[in-house]
Specification:
Strand order of the largest sheet: 4-3-2-5-6-9-7
Number of domains: 2
Distance between the termini: 57 Å
Order of helices and strands: HEHEHEHHEHEHEHHEEEHHHH
Radius of gyration: 20 Å
CATH topology of the largest domain: Rossmann fold
Shape: elongated
Structural class: alpha/beta
Helix content: 25-40%
Number of strands: 9
CATH superfamily of the largest domain: Vaccinia Virus protein VP39
Number of helices: 13
Length: about 280
Amino acid sequence: MPLSPSATRDLLAQLAHFPKRALGQNFLVDGNIVMKSLELAGVTRGDTVVEVGPGLGTLTTALLEAGADVWAVEFDRNLHAHLEATLLKKYPATFHLLEGDAIDHPIAALPADRAAAAPGFKIVANLPYAISTPWMDGILGGPLPTRLVLMLQQEAAQRYAAKPGSKQFGAISIFLQSAYDIAPGHKVAAACFHPRPDIESYLLNLVRKPSPFVFADDVKLLIRACFQQRRKQLGALLREKLPDAGAAWFALIAASGCGPQSRAEDIPVACWQKLTLTP
């Protein structure tokens, strides 16, 4: 079971560790939410699971006890040392711990050949808000996990799941929804953490599509550029950035009711997948 709020405070005091707001260090203290994370991800014995920011090891312990082979990356040196002295000694064969930045190591140094091998790998993580989008962008570059269950601030979860026509819909929404279906998740109250965050969180549950679509890097840059000027009509934007291919793209998506007067947030995900840099 995860540490209670009082046990979490005691352990932090023992480690002389003060939670760092900048690193999103809000430690989960609700056992039901820990088990819900494993349930949503369908974690079973023998699964390969990547975890980001294991912290005090609450979720990590549950994953290891379930028989998963866990690859984790921890940025905080003090917490890394704690995990090294405890869980790494207890589970030397199934716990693989890396000290580093998750943006540089989005799948925690899981070998590429193993990540790509059947039946694939999963990610279960309490993701710090500050790195959520750049980390997700790294994940979407592949190899793609089969499942992701991510504890996120509600704002980030809503942005990932946003639909066209909404102000929250953006480039990351397009990239993620092209590769993953959004399955039912779970709301998480602020009281489930120590220290208690200012807003509520959400367990985002993502299932890889049977035929995931992955954007080329140059097209991703172009889509981001369109959303950086989201109030501007796409006809003008693409005429500046993509004079020939822009006209061809509008011809392709005309059946969807989209045209040069449309703005980036109005274009369906499937239409963005047709965008190329060649006419």
